[in-house]
Every structure is written in C-alpha cells, then in structure tokens.
Design brief:
There is one protein chain. With 100 residues, the chain is mainly alpha-helical. It contains 5 helices and 3 strands, in the order ααβααββα. It has a 3-stranded antiparallel beta sheet with strand order 1-3-2. α1 crosses α4. The longest helix has 21 residues. The protein is globular, with a radius of gyration of 13 Å. It starts with a helix and ends with a helix.
C-alpha cells in the first residue's frame, strides 16, 4: 500500500503524462506515448533498464510538466517504489510503465 503523498504524486505524474499525450500523441495509442516517454527517460539515465530521478526530472522538463510534479514528489515515488543501486535510487522500466 502506498502512502498518501506517493499516491498523490503518482496521480500528478499520470495527469501530466496524459495531458502531454493528448496534446502530442492524440492519433496514437496511449501505450505508445508512455513507451516513448519511458524510452527517453531511460536514455537519460545512467542505469540500464532503470529510470533514475535525474531521468524522470529531465522527461518532465521535456514534456513541459516540471511545474506539475515537484522534485519532492518525484522523490516520494522513487523512494517508495524504487530500488537503491550505486548511490542513486531508480525505478525499473517495467514498474514505471505500470505506474503510468
């Protein structure tokens, strides 16, 4: 069970991604948009197959949602759902797809 803060942060993230999808991927399946976002986040991360906080922040910035989801909210998501490896917390790509 997720904390209220993390649930709220996930809802904000989903909303930001959905807004971006409607604006930029309206002719595509929602899953394609999410996969493109995840692929871009993974490309900016140092860990293969994982999305770091830095990667997620970069993606939110790229889709114009850096004001919609705060750094603190990203930390809630990664701290509660992610795993720690090599000094930086990250979330497996599969889990991020489920979140979105």
């Amino acid at each position: 069970m997720l904390s209220t803060k993390t649930s709220n942060a996930i809802n904000k993230l989903r909303s930001a991604v959905e807004h971006y999808r409607i604006q930029n991927f309206s002719e595509e399946l929602p899953s394609r948009c999410k996969k493109e976002i995840i692929r871009a986040a993974g490309a900016t991360s140092h860990s293969r197959g994982r999305i770091t906080m830095t990667g997620l922040e970069k993606i939110l910035q790229n889709i114009g949602a850096s004001q919609a989801v705060s750094k603190e909210e990203i930390e809630f998501i990664i701290d509660e759902l992610g795993e720690s490896s090599n000094s930086e917390h990250s979330i497996p790509i599969e889990k991020m797809l489920q979140i979105l």
